[in-house]
Amino acid sequence: MRRYVFPVIVAVLVAVGWVLVLPPAPMAQPIAFNHAKHASAACVLCHQGATTGVRAGIPQADTCTRCHATAPGGKISEAAWTGIASGRRIAWQRLTRLPDHVAFSHRRHTGPGQLACASCHGDVAQRTAPPDRAPVRLVMTTCLSCHTREGASEDCAGCHR
Amino acid sequence: MSRWGLVIDLDRCTGCQACVVACKHENNLPFSTPETADVGRLMTWIQLVAADLPGRPMPSSLPLMCQQCDRPPCTDVCPTSATYLNPEGIVAQIYPRCIGCRYCTNACPYAVKIFNWTEPEWPESMAGMRNPDVSARPKGVVEKCTFCHHRLIAARERARVAGRELAPEDYVPACVQICPAEAMTFGDLSDPHSDVAALASGPRAFRWMEELGTQPKVVYLREGE
């Protein structure tokens, strides 16, 4: 019996520590944006740099109000929308992010590379609520396996700056 | 495959240091103060060094950066393969792979691989001037001139988008672009019609410490004649 006491105490402490130190922190977006309901719009209407720039970008209120003269309904309250429509910055979280030492350009991949957004971002466009983590984890092996497949550069210095 | 090379005409170089400043700006190099220089921690990827050249009464000032050797002594000693000769002849340094052991800084006979002693911090007023195409190297890695490799990636992208081949004028490092005396010429050494190829095989051409057998792709042109 006694030989179980120590492991059990350790397990309990780890569990408590886990909860205290690492609370589950899904990235909450400020607005319950619904991609599926916006399927009729082109991605670049909102993500303006996705085919012409390095960064895709996430739209601010001036883009939303081009279509939404009034509150769009859904999960967002009238009052909250008034604040947004008046031009207050929407603090969107960027979920897919690369470290500073990696060079990545959207234009290179969606332009000459002719890749679909889904090949790197999965089913984001069909989601009915914002994902709480990057839909596809883009790590070095993800980049490299496609580069190998497509015959693109595998030189370290091409991606690392 | 291109082999990038740089020719520096010492007859034209006035020692103005514009290249040094342009390089610091382009590549997000932190400030160096007289104090940091005193302890030998000056952060510049190009430096003007005094060089005794045959037939010259006084030492000449020679802009010295990574010589992009075809037989680089630094890559042989790297225990993590963080530094290597890339297919286009640029000696690359992969910062996340670098453990800061400084074997390469010691192996380099030109002393142009520099250990980063400081966190990448800039004064508030300069925060917006960071070049987004170049990373801010963390403290504790070795860094060096890359022939502005990020400019090559960007130039290739522009050419691909326009649906054409890379032209010689598309890719030029910052130091070459700034040089007011037009002492620097950059291009593809493997292209026999390029200016660099012609100059590098001319009668005034020499390589710095070429007797070491490092086979640099930075070529200097002797003064005078």
What do you see in this structure?
The complex is a heterodimer of chains A (161) and B (225). By secondary structure, chain A is mainly alpha-helical. Chain A has one domain. Helices cover 37% and strands 0% of the residues of chain A. The mean pLDDT of chain A is 88. Chain B has 225 residues and is of the alpha+beta class. Chain B has one domain (4-221): Alpha-Beta Plaits (2-Layer Sandwich), CATH 3.30.70. Helices cover 22% and strands 16% of the residues of chain B. The radius of gyration of chain B is 17 Å and the shape is globular. In chain B, 34% of the residues are buried. Classes of the chains: A mainly alpha (161), B alpha+beta (225). At the A-B interface, helix 8 of A face helix 5 of B.
Question: CA-to-CA gap between the ends of chain A?
Answer: 57 Å
| N- and C-termini, Cα separation of chain B | 35 Å
Number of strands of chain B: 10
Overall shape of chain B: it is globular
Oligomer state of the chains in this structure = heterodimer
Low-confidence stretches of chain A: none
Number of strands of chain A: 0
* Envelope shape of chain A: flat
> Structural class, from helix and strand content of chain A?
mainly alpha
Name the helix and strand elements of chain A from N-terminus to C-terminus, one letter apiece: HHHHHHHH
For the biggest sheet of chain A, the summary is: none
| Name given to the CATH architecture of chain B | 2-Layer Sandwich
The domain count of chain A comes to 1
**Structural class determined from secondary elements of chain B:** alpha+beta
Largest sheet strand order of chain B: 8-1-10-9
Instruction: Quote the beta fraction of chain B.
Output: 15-25%
What share of residues are in beta strands of chain A?
under 5%
Give the rounded overall mean pLDDT of chain A: 88
Helix content of chain B: 10-25%
SS summary, helix count of chain A: 8
